[in-house]
Every structure is written in C-alpha cells, then in structure tokens.
Amino acid sequence: MKSDNEEGLRSQVDRLFSMYNTLDFSTLEATLTSDFQRTAPGMNVSSAAGMIDLLKGLHQAFPDYHLEGHERSFAENLAFVHWTATATAGDRKSHSVVGISMFEFRDGKIARDITYFDPATIPVP
Predict the structure, then answer these.
(1) Distance of CA 74 to CAs 46, 51, 58, Å?
(2) Fewer CB within 10 Å, N side or C side of the chain?
(3) What DSSP string runs through 2-53?
(4) C-alpha closest to that of 65 among 35, 88, 40
(5) What's the rounded Cα separation, in Å, for the pair 36 and 86?
C-alpha cells in the first residue's frame, strides 16, 4: 500500500509530465516551488518561468513532443522516474530519448529536477 506522502509525490510528478505534454500550466504554482531548479544536459532552468520557456521551446521545435514516465521510485522527499521522450525531427523520422530524473520535493512541491540523458540522442529539429 502506498503512503499518503508517496501519493502526493506521485501526483506532483504526474502534473509535471502533463505540463510537458499539454503545455497546460494552470497547475504550475501548485507543482513547482518559486525557486525551482532544473539541471539537465544543455537544458538548465533556474525558475518556474524558465520551465515554461523550456517546454514551449521543446514544442516549437518538436510539435508532437511527448514524455512518458515508466518506472518510478519514491523515498522520503525524492522521486526517481525512468522516462522516454518521443518526437518527430526535421528528417520526418520518429526519435526517442531515454532518461532518468530525480525530483526533490519541499513543502509538497517539486523544488529540484536533476535529469540525465545522452544529449547525442536528441534529434535536430
């Protein structure tokens, strides 16, 4: 049985992944802390507003961009998610990037996202 804490963390990760896929930022303030930080190869962000810009840029470059979470693990104030991002690039071929993200939570919101993937697998728009 999942704890209330795990359910809360899972819900926040689901909200963030939904933002990646839909660009619906209506739950942004309830999901990310005001001092949110993201560290990823070539995609660092230092605020919630920066995250909006990043996601809009991904969808501008790859209109069919989609992020899907797979295995998830939770411990205390951390969530670990294995994911796959898919998109069609300028070559009109479907590409996928596999990665893992660690989310750190503070006061029930995502405060930090450390994401790892191979940047060489990102297609050119």
Answers:
(1) 24, 23, 27
(2) N
(3) --HHHHHHHHHHHHHHHHHHH---TTHHHHEEEEEEEE-TT--B-SHHHHHH
(4) 88
(5) 25
Residue 88 · residue 64 · CB < 8 Å: yes
Which is nearest to 58 in space by CA: 122, 104, 120? 122
How buried is residue 110: exposed, middle or buried, by Cβ count under 10 Å (0-12/13-18/19+)? buried
Query: Which two tokens mark 104?
Result: 């750190």
**pLDDT per residue rounded down to tens, the chain (125 residues):** 567 788 999 999 999 999 999 999 999 899 999 999 999 998 999 999 999 999 999 999 899 999 999 999 999 999 999 999 999 987 888 889 999 999 999 999 999 999 999 988 876 65
* Neighbouring-strand partners of residue 107: none
Phi/psi at 116 (5° precision): -125, 130
Residue 119, token pair as written in the block: 């940047």
CA distance 88 to 33: 31
